Amino acid sequence: MNTSDLTCASVTISDGLADVVLAATGKANRMGPDYWAQMPALFARLDEDEAVRVVLLRGAGEHFTFGLDLAAMSAELAPVLSPDGGAKARQQLLGIIRKMQDANTCVARELAFTGDDFDAARALRIGLVNEVYDTQAALLDAARAMAVRIAKNSPLVTRGIKEVMNASSEVQAAHSLATVALWNSAFLPSKDLLEAMAAFLEKREATFTGE
To answer: Which helix (H) or strand (E) holds 18?
Structure first.
């Protein structure tokens, strides 16, 4: 599989394992335009590649990712996020949201409501991760060992298990994502959003008015 055109990640495939290392823009692998555009296509290609039995996804450096690269995405988002934008801007925003949803899945409600950062200990406590290791090297060793075990299993059985597990939540997830996309495209453009973006860039606490 040719991955030379990728800028959001590097991919190495060996013995059934695809090692995908995020190399997104900015500090700590922030997710910029290339990430949102390339990740769905990348994983579609990996899924179709018979040489790939398992994918190990990790971030370069100390952190997995800091999330959305607001500065890098501002050129694409700013024209469609004005509170005064019309129906065309809302339709364009809906398309952007759906594209971004294709690259990621949604996180647990508490984290969505608060937007809090959390450390590895809390991630383990709330079940967001399965294990926590003392060093990055230990984490990668354990992840590779697990990936090797999965890659040694029958690819037909592994794919079958994935299909069965996905089928149980596919309808509900699709409905939730559609609702999120419609809600955001209708209500995300607001004075509160502009205030949030300004506060982030100016490194100050935001003051919201509900408008």
So the answer is: strand 17-22
Q: CA-based angle 30:195:188, to the nearest 5?
A: 75
Closest by CA to 133, choosing from 124, 18, 125, is 124
Cβ burial, residue 88 (10 Å; 0-12/13-18/19+) = exposed
Q: Are 106 and 112 within 8 A, CB to CB? A: yes
Residues 192 and 210: their CA atoms lie apart, in Å, by 6
Q: Give the confidence band of 112 by pLDDT, cuts at 50, 70, 90.
A: low
Please calculate the CA angle 66-70-74 and round it to the nearest 5 degrees: 160
Q: Do 57 and 20 form a contact (C-beta atoms < 8 A)?
A: yes
**Comparing 141 with 63, which gets the higher pLDDT?**
141
- What six digits make up the tokens of 144? 């590779």
Confidence class for position 138, pLDDT limits 50, 70, 90: very high
**Which residue is associated with the tokens 């988002």?**
77
Contact in structure between 20 and 11 (CB atoms under 8 Å): yes
Per-residue model confidence as pLDDT tens digits over 32-52? 777 887 888 888 888 888 888
Structure pTM? 0.51
Query: Cα dist. 38→29, 64, 184, 209 in Å?
Result: 14, 17, 22, 36
Using alpha carbons only, give the angle 189, 194, 196 rounded to the nearest 5 degrees.
115
